[in-house]
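Human: I'm a chemist; would you kindly supply sequence and C-alpha coordinates for a protein?

Assistant:
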Amino acid sequence: MSTKERTMWVGMLIIILVASLSITNQYKNKLINLVEEKEILSNKYTKLKDENQNLTTTVSNLNIDLKSQNELIYNLPKIDQSMIKFLLDDKGFQGEIKDIESNLLNHSDLIPYEGILGGTMHFYEGGTHAVTDQWVVTSFGDGHMEGYMILSYDLNGEKITWKVIDSYLY
Protein backbone atom coordinates (compact mmCIF):
# COMPACT_ATOMS: atom_id res chain seq x y z
CA MET A 1 0.00 0.00 0.00
CA SER A 2 1.37 3.40 -0.96
CA THR A 3 1.81 6.37 1.31
CA LYS A 4 -0.92 8.16 -0.50
CA GLU A 5 -3.37 5.33 0.14
CA ARG A 6 -2.33 5.13 3.78
CA THR A 7 -2.82 8.86 4.21
CA MET A 8 -6.24 8.56 2.62
CA TRP A 9 -7.21 5.73 4.95
CA VAL A 10 -5.93 7.57 8.00
CA GLY A 11 -7.78 10.73 6.84
CA MET A 12 -11.00 8.75 6.42
CA LEU A 13 -10.58 7.14 9.84
CA ILE A 14 -10.03 10.58 11.36
CA ILE A 15 -13.18 11.92 9.59
CA ILE A 16 -15.17 8.88 10.76
CA LEU A 17 -13.77 9.29 14.29
CA VAL A 18 -14.59 13.03 14.39
CA ALA A 19 -18.09 12.37 13.00
CA SER A 20 -18.62 9.59 15.56
CA LEU A 21 -17.45 11.84 18.40
CA SER A 22 -19.73 14.64 17.16
CA ILE A 23 -22.73 12.35 16.93
CA THR A 24 -21.91 10.84 20.34
CA ASN A 25 -21.61 14.35 21.81
CA GLN A 26 -24.98 15.33 20.33
CA TYR A 27 -26.67 12.29 21.87
CA LYS A 28 -24.88 12.93 25.15
CA ASN A 29 -26.27 16.50 25.19
CA LYS A 30 -29.76 15.23 24.32
CA LEU A 31 -29.50 12.67 27.11
CA ILE A 32 -28.41 15.37 29.59
CA ASN A 33 -31.35 17.56 28.50
CA LEU A 34 -33.77 14.65 28.87
CA VAL A 35 -32.43 13.86 32.34
CA GLU A 36 -32.86 17.54 33.33
CA GLU A 37 -36.37 17.60 31.84
CA LYS A 38 -37.21 14.38 33.69
CA GLU A 39 -36.05 15.99 36.95
CA ILE A 40 -38.17 19.11 36.29
CA LEU A 41 -41.22 16.99 35.46
CA SER A 42 -40.61 14.81 38.50
CA ASN A 43 -40.50 17.93 40.71
CA LYS A 44 -43.69 19.26 39.10
CA TYR A 45 -45.37 15.88 39.63
CA THR A 46 -44.35 15.85 43.29
CA LYS A 47 -45.59 19.42 43.76
CA LEU A 48 -48.92 18.62 42.04
CA LYS A 49 -49.26 15.42 44.04
CA ASP A 50 -48.74 17.39 47.29
CA GLU A 51 -51.16 20.10 46.15
CA ASN A 52 -53.74 17.44 45.27
CA GLN A 53 -53.31 15.87 48.71
CA ASN A 54 -53.77 19.29 50.36
CA LEU A 55 -56.89 19.99 48.28
CA THR A 56 -58.28 16.54 49.03
CA THR A 57 -57.75 17.16 52.74
CA THR A 58 -59.40 20.59 52.45
CA VAL A 59 -62.42 19.12 50.64
CA SER A 60 -62.67 16.37 53.23
CA ASN A 61 -62.56 18.92 56.07
CA LEU A 62 -65.17 21.08 54.33
CA ASN A 63 -67.43 18.06 53.91
CA ILE A 64 -67.06 17.28 57.62
CA ASP A 65 -67.92 20.91 58.47
CA LEU A 66 -70.90 20.83 56.11
CA LYS A 67 -72.17 17.60 57.63
CA SER A 68 -71.78 19.09 61.09
CA GLN A 69 -73.67 22.25 60.11
CA ASN A 70 -76.44 20.24 58.47
CA GLU A 71 -76.75 18.07 61.57
CA LEU A 72 -77.03 21.19 63.73
CA ILE A 73 -79.78 22.60 61.56
CA TYR A 74 -81.72 19.37 61.18
CA ASN A 75 -81.37 18.57 64.87
CA LEU A 76 -82.84 21.84 66.04
CA PRO A 77 -85.45 21.32 68.71
CA LYS A 78 -88.74 20.30 67.16
CA ILE A 79 -91.19 23.16 66.94
CA ASP A 80 -94.62 22.69 68.43
CA GLN A 81 -96.62 22.93 65.21
CA SER A 82 -99.91 22.91 67.08
CA MET A 83 -98.89 26.06 68.98
CA ILE A 84 -97.89 27.79 65.74
CA LYS A 85 -101.22 26.76 64.17
CA PHE A 86 -103.10 28.09 67.21
CA LEU A 87 -101.29 31.46 66.96
CA LEU A 88 -101.95 31.65 63.20
CA ASP A 89 -105.63 30.84 63.71
CA ASP A 90 -105.74 33.56 66.37
CA LYS A 91 -104.46 36.01 63.72
CA GLY A 92 -107.29 34.96 61.40
CA PHE A 93 -105.20 32.83 59.03
CA GLN A 94 -107.43 30.11 57.58
CA GLY A 95 -104.73 28.04 55.86
CA GLU A 96 -102.29 25.46 57.10
CA ILE A 97 -98.64 25.91 58.08
CA LYS A 98 -97.70 24.05 54.90
CA ASP A 99 -99.49 26.78 52.90
CA ILE A 100 -97.10 29.37 54.34
CA GLU A 101 -94.09 27.15 53.69
CA SER A 102 -95.27 26.42 50.12
CA ASN A 103 -95.93 30.11 49.42
CA LEU A 104 -92.23 30.86 49.81
CA LEU A 105 -91.44 28.61 46.80
CA ASN A 106 -92.91 31.36 44.58
CA HIS A 107 -90.58 34.04 45.95
CA SER A 108 -87.08 33.08 44.77
CA ASP A 109 -86.55 36.81 44.16
CA LEU A 110 -85.92 37.07 47.93
CA ILE A 111 -82.71 35.07 47.60
CA PRO A 112 -79.89 37.66 47.71
CA TYR A 113 -77.43 35.59 45.66
CA GLU A 114 -77.04 34.97 41.94
CA GLY A 115 -76.79 31.44 40.59
CA ILE A 116 -73.51 30.30 39.06
CA LEU A 117 -72.59 28.17 36.07
CA GLY A 118 -76.03 28.69 34.55
CA GLY A 119 -77.90 27.72 37.72
CA THR A 120 -80.93 29.60 39.02
CA MET A 121 -81.40 30.13 42.74
CA HIS A 122 -84.61 28.66 44.14
CA PHE A 123 -86.04 27.47 47.44
CA TYR A 124 -86.07 23.71 47.92
CA GLU A 125 -89.47 22.09 48.16
CA GLY A 126 -89.77 20.62 51.64
CA GLY A 127 -86.81 22.72 52.79
CA THR A 128 -88.87 25.42 54.53
CA HIS A 129 -89.85 25.06 58.18
CA ALA A 130 -92.02 27.42 60.23
CA VAL A 131 -90.27 28.00 63.54
CA THR A 132 -92.79 30.48 64.97
CA ASP A 133 -95.95 32.22 63.87
CA GLN A 134 -93.67 34.91 62.38
CA TRP A 135 -90.46 33.20 61.18
CA VAL A 136 -89.35 30.43 58.85
CA VAL A 137 -85.99 28.79 58.20
CA THR A 138 -85.40 27.60 54.65
CA SER A 139 -82.73 26.18 52.37
CA PHE A 140 -82.03 27.29 48.83
CA GLY A 141 -79.56 26.66 46.02
CA ASP A 142 -78.91 26.53 42.31
CA GLY A 143 -77.52 23.00 42.00
CA HIS A 144 -73.92 24.22 42.45
CA MET A 145 -74.02 26.12 45.73
CA GLU A 146 -76.51 26.17 48.55
CA GLY A 147 -77.45 28.25 51.54
CA TYR A 148 -79.84 28.87 54.39
CA MET A 149 -82.10 31.78 55.13
CA ILE A 150 -84.24 33.05 57.98
CA LEU A 151 -87.28 35.08 56.96
CA SER A 152 -90.09 36.77 58.80
CA TYR A 153 -93.58 36.75 57.39
CA ASP A 154 -96.62 38.86 57.95
CA LEU A 155 -100.15 37.68 57.31
CA ASN A 156 -102.90 39.88 55.96
CA GLY A 157 -105.79 37.52 55.45
CA GLU A 158 -104.46 34.96 52.99
CA LYS A 159 -101.76 37.33 51.67
CA ILE A 160 -98.23 36.64 52.96
CA THR A 161 -95.53 39.32 52.97
CA TRP A 162 -91.93 38.13 53.33
CA LYS A 163 -88.85 39.86 54.75
CA VAL A 164 -85.31 38.42 54.74
CA ILE A 165 -83.71 38.49 58.20
CA ASP A 166 -80.43 36.76 57.35
CA SER A 167 -78.89 34.33 54.88
CA TYR A 168 -75.61 32.66 54.05
CA LEU A 169 -74.05 30.34 51.49
CA TYR A 170 -72.07 27.23 52.32
The first helix runs from residue 3 to 74. Residues 1-75 form one domain. The chain has a mean pLDDT of 88. The chain has three helices and four strands.
